[in-house]
Structures are given as structure tokens and as C-alpha cells.
Amino acid sequence: MYVPKYDSSRTVTVGNNVLALLKRTLEFQLTDKETCGEYYQENYMNYDEETHSLLSLNDLRPVHFVNAKQGGLLAHPRNMQHTSRSIHGKAKNCTLISEEWDFHSLRHTHATILYEAGVPMPLIQKRLGHINIQTTKRYTDHVTKKMLSMLDEVINGDNIDNNLE
After folding, report:
1. How many domains does the chain have?
2. Contacts of 88 by beta carbon, 8 Å cutoff, 6+ apart
């Protein structure tokens, strides 16, 4: 378990579809824990999210990772890197998957989708836990097809109310 950068622990809202997926994941983990019995790997942390400080090793707290492997083992970020490399290997001829894509790219995609939907930049910054708004802007500084379409609508007057008096 890593201590978050910049005391950036936060609560984020999720939609009903994500909540349902998280509940199914938890059900799977509870079943897995029951199946593994004493061999299930419990995980603990020594970080207090309320005070943003490290606790003594005698005061460890149980933690339940969303991204755990079978048997309760933590899916380390390196596992996710390996998975993305496997995807690249299997999708060599797929132009939809960039060679630079990795799981962290989903964070960029999330920020871009929020930006395209009109969510104000400071809210995106807060959701991502960035201290500096410039960091957030780097996530959303690329032009997408949807943005170009919106620009065309404005230039062509497609979004202007023609009932002006």
C-alpha cells in the first residue's frame, strides 16, 4: 500500500453502474475468502486516512482492495503494467489501441470525458486530486472528435437559436 501523494486521499462519487460492479466484485471477494479459508491473504495498512499520517506497525488496520487477485493478494501496479503489455501484444494490428496505452491512460480518458461533458476544470482537478490546475489541463489538452464536432456546430450556427427577434 502506498501513501498517497500530497495528502490526496478523497472520496469520489461513482455512478450506479460502477457501484453495481463494485458490489459484484466485493461479493466475489467474500466468496473467495470463504473458499480459501485460512489461506486467504488479509491486507493491512499503517496509514490513517483521517489524519493523513503513518501509524505504528503495531496499529495496522485491515484494508480491502478493489483490485485484489484471487486469494486476497494485492494486484500490484506492476501486474497492471504486465496486463497492458499483454493487450499490446495481442492487439498489434489493432489501430484503436495506442502503443503508449496503459491503465493510467484510463485516468486521462476519464478527465477528457468529464471535460467534454462540460464539467468545470476545477471540479475535474478536485476529483483527480491534483494540487495544480495545470496538471489537470495536461490531461484534457488534446482535441477529440467530439470537441471538433462542437466547434463545427458553433461555427456553422447549428446551436444558435434562430428565433431571435
Report:
1. 2
2. 97, 99, 101
